[in-house]
Automatic annotation (TrEMBL):
One of its GO terms (molecular function) is tRNA binding. It catalyses: tRNA(Glu) + L-glutamate + ATP = L-glutamyl-tRNA(Glu) + AMP + diphosphate. ATP binds at residue 244. The gene is gltX. It comes from Litorimonas cladophorae. HAMAP family: Glu_tRNA_synth_type1. This is Glutamate--tRNA ligase.
Length: 442
């Protein structure tokens, strides 16, 4: 296969969320797997809603995920190319002016529905004479422009969905240019895909119908036609649409919540595939496992619980050197507490317990028991000290199980759970441990 050229084409009208990041990853991983090129295209033809801040935010989000692009450009700088393409379509009789208002179109659709017909544009504008067009324009109407679909069947072999066949006579001729002269996404996208020689258009299956129309636009403008891959959409753990929740599932939010980029990338590239959902430590590792043949047809279930679990797994496997500048404490501290955290910020609580002065929790009935533990402790704590202490107290007091070790854990850490006490005792050191077991702040 020649080296693929793919593009991810977000609109800068918001930050990236799990849905579009999944699409971005499919493109990135495929390109990496095939040593191709990944292009970041900013779809900002909607100048009202697009902002430079969101554009920068999208780039920051991708960079945070470890994604880099071979090339980036934005559509708002390429209107000349789209104008030229529109002229070409007009000259071929494939782009025609329409004067209906939104209300008129709405009424038409209602009538069609009442008559039991599909709400497909009736192509009345194709019948307009020059005089009628001039009359509309004299009225102050400016035309919007529709692409004339062939009325036939568009077929393609989709890398995810297999053989596709769409009868475009069931579709309305798509509007390519609005009444105010602005472009909808359909034409600029095709023009850019031709110009950038995109080999594979990889996007969500909400674009399947678009693809049928866009394939006809491709054919009208060029001999270049990319291969298509439409991936199933993400749904929530309950199988319901995520659309209302996507705001809180932005990279910005997840990052603020302490989710690591590789937890996001691992989950989003594995759900909905035949691979197990497991943590991977680099995009390269994910790319080496990527294949369109592994992507199922059912919606991919996104569950935040899986994200937290993967995040924890990732941290449990992360060496100190990779987090040294993000955490208090040293390698010994990290190696002991990492198994007990889900997010890197959880380290703070353990750092407070280990590094800052505090009093443990000692119930009235455990005061003497803890004191005798304090007096047993040697001045140097070794990894075996804990089991020696517990063995000694067991013989001395007859306590066992929880009644034996829980009062000690509470006195030393004020927590009922945490890293193994052999390790915690070493981290605390003799002085702190003795003081806390004696009920002092240390
Ligand atoms: N800007 C379009 C979107 O976000 C791009 C779709 C495409 O990849 O062609 O839906």
């Amino acid at each position: 296969m020649t080296k693929p050229i793919v593009r991810f084409a977000p609109s800068p009208t918001g930050r990236l969320h799990v849905g579009n990041v999944r699409t971005a990853l499919m493109n990135v991983l495929f390109a990496q797997a095939e040593e191709g090129m990944f292009i970041l295209r900013i779809d900002d033809t909607d100048v009202e809603r697009s902002t430079a801040e969101y554009e920068q935010g999208i780039k920051d989000d991708l960079t945070w995920l470890g994604v880099s692009w071979g090339k980036t450009f934005k559509q708002s700088e390429r209107f000349d190319m789209y104008d030229a393409a529109a002229d070409k379509l007009r000259a071929a009789g494939l782009l025609y002016p329409c004067y209906e208002t939104a209300d008129e179109l709405d009424r038409q659709r209602k009538l069609q529905r009442v008559a039991g017909k599909p709400p497909v544009y009736n192509r009345a504008a194709l019948e307009l004479t020059d005089d009628q067009k001039a009359a509309y324009e004299a009225e102050g109407r400016t035309p919007h422009w529709r692409f004339k679909l062939s009325g036939g069947t568009v077929t393609w072999t989709d890398m995810v969905r297999g053989e596709q066949s769409i009868d475009v006579s069931s579709l309305s001729d798509p509007v390519l240019i609005r009444g105010d002269g602005s472009y909808l996404y359909t034409l600029p996208s095709v023009v850019d895909d031709i110009e950038a020689e995109i080999t594979h258009v990889i996007r969500g299956e909400d674009h399947v119908t678009n693809s049928a129309a866009q394939i006809e636009v491709f054919q009208a403008l060029s001999t270049h036609l990319p291969t298509f891959a439409h991936t199933p959409l993400l749904v929530g753990a309950d199988g319901k649409s995520l659309s209302k929740r996507l705001g809180s599932l932005s990279m910005l939010e997840l990052r603020d919540q302490g989710i690591e980029p590789m937890a996001v990338a691992s989950l989003l590239s594995k759900i909905g595939t035949s691979d197990a959902v497991e943590i991977r430590h680099s995009l390269q590792a994910l790319a080496s496992e990527f294949s369109f043949t592994k992507i199922g047809r059912a919606p991919a279930r996104f569950d935040e619980k899986d994200l937290i679990a993967l995040n924890a797994k990732l941290l449990h496997e992360t060496p100190y050197a990779e987090v040294a500048d993000r955490i208090p404490g040293d390698a010994a501290f990290w190696n002991i507490v990492r198994a007990n955290i889900e997010k890197i910020s959880d380290v703070e609580a353990w750092a407070d317990i280990v590094l800052k002065p505090m009093a443990g929790e000692i119930a009235a009935e455990d005061v003497d028991f803890c004191k005798s533990a304090a007096s047993f402790l040697p001045d140097t704590i070794l990894p075996e000290t804990w089991s020696e202490l517990v063995g000694h107290l067991k013989t001395e007091t007859g306590r066992k199980g929880k009644g034996l070790f829980m009062p000690l854990r509470l006195a030393l850490t004020a927590q009922g759970h945490g890293p193994s006490m052999d390790d915690m005792l070493v981290l605390l050191g003799a002085e702190k441990a003795k003081a806390r077991l004696s009920g002092d702040v240390a």
